[in-house]
Amino acid sequence: MTSIWTGEKVRLRGVEPEDWRAFQRFDEYSADMRSVDMLHPPRSAAGYRRWAEDTEAREGTDDEFLLVIESLVDNTAAGSVSTHDTDQRAGRFSYGIAVGHEHKRRGYAADAAVLVLRYMFGERRFHKCEVGVYAFNEASLALHRKLGFQVEGTLREHEFFAGRRHDLVLLGLTAGEFASYHGM
């Protein structure tokens, strides 16, 4: 029997208390932090431990959750994926994905995204996924185009960081489009 949470390259799992070290390493790369969210002030090792313990103890819902992306090659935490902004009535949700610096360009983000999309479309009955990607994040834009997302618009000068304003590209993917690219 195969788990729907295991792909060709990664397995998605809950956050464990010992994952704090991996998340601390991920945050050491300011450019990576900016490309998915924003730059946060440094946190102590105790702060990372507390975050991991609190995250592990906090139960998500079937629709909104944070999972660790674990490499099947060496069973290490390679990043995270989370769902948010779920709207059951409208059938929409969003997700965010981040892969640690030393794990980039291995196909982990694509594999993890397909697993989450398959779950949200095939098990939770959502109709559409919407994501926002910073216009300078070419790798993420290419990933989402490869997954079948369509550009739906741009919010100009939407975010401020690194001393200037940045555009946010809005992309969308319907369940039918996903199924035609990846199957259910």
From TrEMBL:
Q: Which domain of life is it from?
A: Bacteria
What is the name attached to this protein's record? N-acetyltransferase
Q: Which UniProt keywords apply?
A: Transferase
Q: Which residues form the signal peptide?
A: none
Q: Name one Pfam family in it.
A: Acetyltransf_3
Report the GO terms under cellular component. cytoplasm
Query: InterPro entries under this entry?
Result: Acyl_CoA_acyltransferase, GNAT_dom, Ribosomal_N-acetyltransferase
- The answer on whether this UniProt entry bears the keyword Transmembrane reads no
Q: Which GO terms describe its molecular function?
A: protein N-terminal-serine acetyltransferase activity; protein-N-terminal-alanine acetyltransferase activity
> What organism is this sequence from?
Amycolatopsis suaedae
Whether Cell inner membrane counts among this entry's keywords is no
Q: Which PROSITE patterns match?
A: GNAT
